[in-house]
């Protein structure tokens, strides 16, 4: 489970058949009727229509499209809240790898650019999770929580482009890290199989998603990537890749959401990899660890030079005390996010019914 869990705030949708029907121009709002009509639509029509549905990717709002808790029926897939399933011990008892990248929240920059949020939001009400059970009409309650977040993350400084790194940290925590750590903690507590947790700190040459999020000429980068994908020739593709790499970008330390993918799979971003190159060696680190887990149920069944002879241990305490830090030199670490996770634990325990 890479950079996501069922407990992340973005992983839940709402029943919205009426909104879907409206976007497609249907008069009907009955779920079965709308489904039958959807099955006859072209893929293009469905994709174009989904852009009419507003999705700000705010923690304060349940997503308009996503998994929902269904009414019990023979065909239902999910009839209970995932956290209740985990706490009951009825989740599948299997070894699990789960983890996150060191700066997941750099992803915020892509959301900001593709949803026309040119101006940085100056308050944090939209970062107060919808599942904190603060009533929608309790604006003062939401404001109080937002002020607590601002005091903790910004030390009451003004929110600005100058401290954008804090924005990335906050977004990463509430959108990704907290839900992942909570899922790991609960699955270890209520399960009987090893849970391996990683933190990906590898800020390397194949971190293309981070570069894409932070490139200064975003539309130009999109066009270059499009032409690279459509070129059909490795030589032409290489020319476009070199052009893309020359575009100026911001330089924020850390590993963005989705950066790990490029060390596991070949994509149209991927250049030709020379055997023995830095890229090749870093790919081997990721691939061997993941394939070891698939083969043995253990990511490091024996000490190996490729992972700095580190044995990755499953977590044993609620504080997630053993995290495998993936970098050029792998190591086991304590939970570097622990203090921030305690803040979110405290907030949820105070405001969740």
UniProtKB/TrEMBL annotation:
InterPro entries named among the record's database cross-references: AB_hydrolase_fold, CarbesteraseB
Statement: the UniProt record of this protein carries the keyword Glycoprotein: yes
Name listed for the protein in its UniProt record: Carboxylesterase type B domain-containing protein
Any one GO molecular-function label of the UniProt entry: carboxylic ester hydrolase activity
Coiled coil: none
Source organism of the structure: Callosobruchus maculatus (Southern cowpea weevil)
Family: Belongs to the type-B carboxylesterase/lipase family.
Keywords from the named record: Glycoprotein, Hydrolase, Serine esterase
